[in-house]
């Protein structure tokens, strides 16, 4: 018998899947062939995508009303976006927290602690998902598949990757949210045929058409709107409630004299209730000096308010079908994903668009994280017989004479791809040419996103229009794009690998990571203090508000501790000792 040792190949079976959502986020992992969404400390599979200082999720959400200037929500909508974008300018009017323009024109977030790129806020949410995964799996997590809206451009995708890097995660693949949902729906099914995934979440809308058969998931087309979702429904509904109140009470209530977040919270709660009931009551105490808001709202009123916004999803669906070159009657299943698809109005709208009853067999809040975990299983080698063929969401091309955008790769081209086209010079005896690379759907380059530039030198001299310059676009399954240019005669070649900017330079990302490591212990101490304070205040409040009569001496001790922990610099060891004594009286 040969006693020599050998190296055993171990598959990395712990690539988690993360749904980094606008409203909520989730993390999942494969257990065998089943994707399991992991639960947080509140025993929930979804965690609010809300950040306040070092608090993330449910604990941060509590401060939406109390501290709206420093409690950040819906940051995903700001990732990879320019401050001056018209959509951004309209949206930030609805935000309670402040924003500003960075030196390169990207939108950043301002709090009392300083200015932050949206990627930094996203990193805190991803880190929370990482912690949930590590607690459940009982080992470190370093690799993840993360989902993004199908219509995210390269800058928004790179911003997501930067968020992962800051959080200490190697994002090995970014996949589109509707594609992830299709994976979750069709993993153990065969010969499904053509399906549509209608994904309407808190901040974005996507529609994807796929063909699924025997484990092959082929995306035929995708379309959508990265600024359409539940946030818009809530804002519109809040405005309606203010106007409705003013009309019924003859008042002049507006967003300057009430808490926007308090109103949004009430409207969101009503929206959820009206998915199961025909009417509900909204009550807000003392919203106006000496006045309460007390309104009965019907489902019909809500539907009339959101109808205009919801109908904006119709055109992208029609375009996706056209791009896929199929008719509605060829769609066998319509999958609903995202929290907004729980609304009866949306389900009726989807049925009218595709002329079939939508499928509701998957959990719209968990399917995307499950699909990401499935892709993680494929990449780790623990899951076979599954092949994902995704597409690029936007067209790619170069600038030609007159600022024209000449497309070389059309949107919805299947990954990976390679395409070459021949161009020529615009002047006689031209020695070099600048080739500017763009992404978008507009006819002029100034309306599209510039990705990079190649300068091709030593072109063979000749009359304009005679040199043959081949330009090639090549993209791998990870979405990494390479563009090359070559003169057909002298064979001199220039190539560029396009790594789009997210608003943070590589140096800035690395500095954020370095500073995060340096401040980690301080941050942990602050988080521990905050968590202890919240816990202590609840216990003390329950004792003070209880029906049991305690000795005055004891009650004074409780009040003293309450005042003690209100001090920002309180000693946690002393406070814990005092609290343990007091807890003995807790009923």
What does this structure look like?
- With 587 residues, the chain is of the alpha+beta class.
- The protein folds into four domains: 16-228 and 311-389, Nucleotidyltransferase, domain 5; 230-310, ATPase, substrate binding domain, subdomain 4 (Actin, Chain A, domain 4), CATH 3.90.640; 396-498, Substrate Binding Domain Of DNAk, Chain A, domain 1; 520-583, no CATH class.
- 35% of the residues lie in helices and 27% in strands.
- It has 15 helices and 27 strands.
- The strands form seven sheets. Strands 1, 2, 3, 4, 11 and 12 form a six-stranded mixed β-sheet that branches. A five-stranded mixed β-sheet has the order 18-13-14-15-19, with helices on both faces.
- Strand 20 and strand 21 (404-409) form a beta hairpin.
- Helix 4 (118-137) packs across helix 5 (154-166), helix 13 packs antiparallel against helix 14 and helix 14 runs antiparallel to helix 15.
- The longest helix is centred in the C-terminal third of the chain and has 40 residues, at 506-545.
The CATH architecture name of the largest domain reads 2-Layer Sandwich
Our count of helices gives 15
Bin the strand percentage.
25-35%
CATH class of the largest domain: Alpha Beta
Percentage of helical residues? 25-40%
Mean pLDDT across all amino acids? 85
End-to-end gap? 69 Å
Structural domains: how many: 4
Model regions low in confidence, pLDDT < 50 over at least 5 residues? 1-12
Biggest sheet architecture: 6 strands, mixed
Q: Spell out the CATH superfamily of the largest domain.
A: ATPase, nucleotide binding domain
The CATH topology of the largest domain is Nucleotidyltransferase, domain 5
- Cα Rg: 27 Å
- What is the structural class? alpha+beta
Number of strands: 27
- Which word captures the global form? globular
């Amino acid at each position: 018998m040969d006693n020599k040792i050998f190296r055993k190949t171990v598959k990395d079976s712990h690539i988690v899947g993360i749904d980094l959502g606008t409203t909520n986020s989730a993390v999942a992992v494969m257990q065998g062939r089943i994707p399991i969404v992991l639960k947080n400390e509140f025993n929930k599979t979804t965690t609010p995508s809300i950040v306040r200082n070092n608090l993330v999720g449910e604990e941060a959400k509590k401060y939406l009303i109390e501290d709206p200037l420093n409690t950040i929500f819906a940051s995903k909508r700001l990732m990879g976006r320019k401050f001056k974008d018209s959509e951004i300018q309209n949206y930030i009017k609805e935000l309670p927290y402040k924003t500003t323009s960075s030196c390169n024109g990207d939108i950043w977030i301002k709090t009392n602690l300083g200015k932050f790129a949206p990627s930094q806020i996203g990193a805190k949410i991803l880190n929370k998902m990482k912690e949930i995964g590590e607690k459940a799996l009982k080992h470190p997590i370093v690799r993840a598949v993360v989902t993004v809206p199908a219509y995210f451009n390269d800058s928004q995708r790179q911003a997501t990757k930067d968020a992962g890097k800051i959080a200490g995660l190697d994002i090995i693949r970014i996949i589109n949210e509707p594609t992830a949902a299709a994976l979750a729906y069709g993993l153990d099914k065969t010969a499904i045929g053509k399906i549509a995934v209608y994904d309407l979440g808190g901040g974005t809308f996507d529609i994807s058409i796929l063909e699924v058969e025997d484990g092959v998931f082929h995306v035929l087309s995708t379309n959508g709107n990265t600024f359409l979702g539940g946030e818009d429904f809530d804002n519109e509904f809040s405005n309606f409630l203010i106007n409705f109140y003013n009309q019924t009470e003859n008042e002049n209530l507006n967003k300057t004299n009430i808490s926007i977040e308090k109103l949004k919270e009430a409207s969101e709660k009503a929206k959820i209730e009206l998915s199961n009931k025909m009417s509900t009551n909204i009550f807000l105490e003392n919203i106006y000096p000496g006045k309460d808001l007390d309104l009965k709202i019907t489902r019909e009123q809500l539907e009339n308010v959101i109808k205009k916004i919801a109908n904006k999803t119709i055109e992208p669906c029609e375009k996706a079908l056209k791009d896929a070159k199929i008719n509605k009657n060829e769609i066998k299943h319509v999958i609903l994903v995202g929290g907004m698809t729980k609304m009866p109005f949306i389900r009726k709208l989807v049925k009218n668009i595709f002329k079939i009853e939508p499928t509701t067999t998957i959990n719209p809040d968990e399917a995307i994280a499950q699909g990401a975990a499935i892709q993680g299983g494929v990449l780790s080698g623990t899951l076979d017989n599954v092949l994902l063929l995704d597409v690029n969401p936007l067209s790619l091309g170069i600038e030609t004479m007159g600022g024209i955008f000449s497309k070389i790769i059309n949107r919805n081209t299947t990954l990976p791809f390679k395409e070459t086209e021949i161009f020529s010079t615009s002047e006689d005896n031209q020695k070099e040419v600048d080739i500017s690379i763009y992404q978008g759907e507009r006819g002029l380059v100034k309306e599209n996103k510039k990705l990079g530039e190649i300068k091709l030198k030593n072109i063979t001299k000749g009359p304009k229009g005679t040199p043959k310059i081949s330009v090639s676009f090549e993209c791998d399954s990870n979405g990494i794009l390479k563009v090359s240019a070559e003169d057909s005669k002298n064979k001199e070649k220039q190539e560029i690998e396009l790594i789009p900017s997210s608003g943070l330079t590589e140096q800035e990302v690395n500095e954020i990571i370095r500073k995060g490591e340096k401040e980690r212990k301080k941050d942990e101490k602050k988080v521990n203090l905050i968590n202890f304070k919240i816990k202590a205040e609840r216990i003390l409040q329950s004792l003070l508000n209880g029906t049991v009569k305690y000795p005055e001496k004891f009650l004074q001790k409780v009040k003293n501790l309450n005042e003690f922990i209100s001090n920002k610099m309180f000693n946690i060891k002393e406070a814990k000792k005092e609290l343990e004594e007091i807890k003995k009286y807790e009923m």
